[in-house]
Recover the amino acids of this structure.
């Protein structure tokens, strides 16, 4: 068995992935892919990791935890999704982003030290990630939220580097949240690990949130009558319909933080793009590019 950890990050997926996989739980189960309800494992894994304090769980503990997560006796893949695997939202910024991500994830995988692991993570431009994350804070001022952190110095490659260092040999799949509307089927397939050609239901939630109902209906009809033969062809179709029917307020979101200038946002965005190229070149990392 392999345990697949969908790590988030915060302000990217917003539970869409696990909702979609849960709707297709029966189809995936036929292929040995289990998608348990998050209520069965999030608090359980957190409490178990705290009790273990970084030590490896015994066979007995592993068996007890698995018994509470899954009803089946065996599986090929067990999918666990939680954006707080990396950190709780209030602790994301500590001079950098997810300062203890590698160590924290290692603590979770130590619950099942003898079972293969696989990580999946969406990253987001810090210029939009920080304002969105700030909206999740309760009662914090802008200064308290940043706590001295330099927004222009944030690098996702630092986060990924420590994950790889603390969890050597574990496959790590990364994608940019900004690309998700175009690569959503590939994201679902990468996480689920289902057989090629598997048809999943209700996979349009993401596009439904950023496209007019009429545009979405037209796109569905076009894809039905003109089935794309390749992944790039499907992406071109989706991109064309988004260009024409996207909801501007959903795809051109404006984020503001006190003291930020347009030049600063542009510089952060340029740095983010450079960081993506750095991540693509990192050993042990697979990047799902649009």
């Amino acid at each position: 068995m392999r345990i697949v950890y969908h790590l988030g990050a915060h302000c990217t997926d917003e539970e869409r992935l696990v909702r979609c996989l849960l709707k297709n739980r029966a189809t995936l189960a036929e292929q040995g892919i289990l998608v348990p309800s998050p209520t069965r494992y999030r608090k359980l894994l957190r409490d178990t990791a705290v009790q273990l304090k970084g030590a490896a769980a015994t066979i007995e503990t592993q068996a007890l935890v698995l018994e509470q997560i899954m009803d089946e006796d065996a599986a090929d893949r067990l999918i666990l999704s939680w954006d707080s695997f990396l950190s709780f939202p209030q602790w994301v910024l500590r001079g950098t982003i997810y300062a203890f991500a590698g160590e924290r994830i290692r603590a979770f995988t130590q619950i099942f030290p003898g079972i293969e692991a696989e990580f999946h993570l969406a990253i987001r431009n810090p210029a939009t990630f920080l304002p969105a994350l700030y909206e999740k804070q309760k009662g914090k001022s802008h200064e308290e939220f940043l706590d001295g952190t330099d927004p222009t110095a944030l690098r996702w490659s630092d986060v990924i580097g420590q994950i790889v260092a603390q969890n050597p040999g574990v496959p790590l799949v990364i994608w940019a949240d900004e690309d998700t509307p175009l690569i959503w089927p590939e994201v679902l397939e990468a996480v689920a690990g289902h057989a090629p050609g598997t048809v999943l239901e209700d996979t349009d939630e993401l596009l439904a949130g950023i496209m007019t109902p009429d545009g979405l209906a037209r796109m569905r009809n076009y894809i039905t009558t003109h089935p794309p033969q390749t992944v790039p062809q499907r992406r071109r179709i989706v991109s064309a319909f988004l260009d024409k029917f996207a909801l501007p307020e959903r795809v051109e979101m404006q984020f503001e933080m006190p003291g930020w200038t347009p030049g600063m946002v542009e510089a952060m965005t340029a740095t983010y793009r450079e960081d993506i190229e750095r991540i693509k070149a990192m050993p042990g990392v697979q990047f799902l590019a649009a």
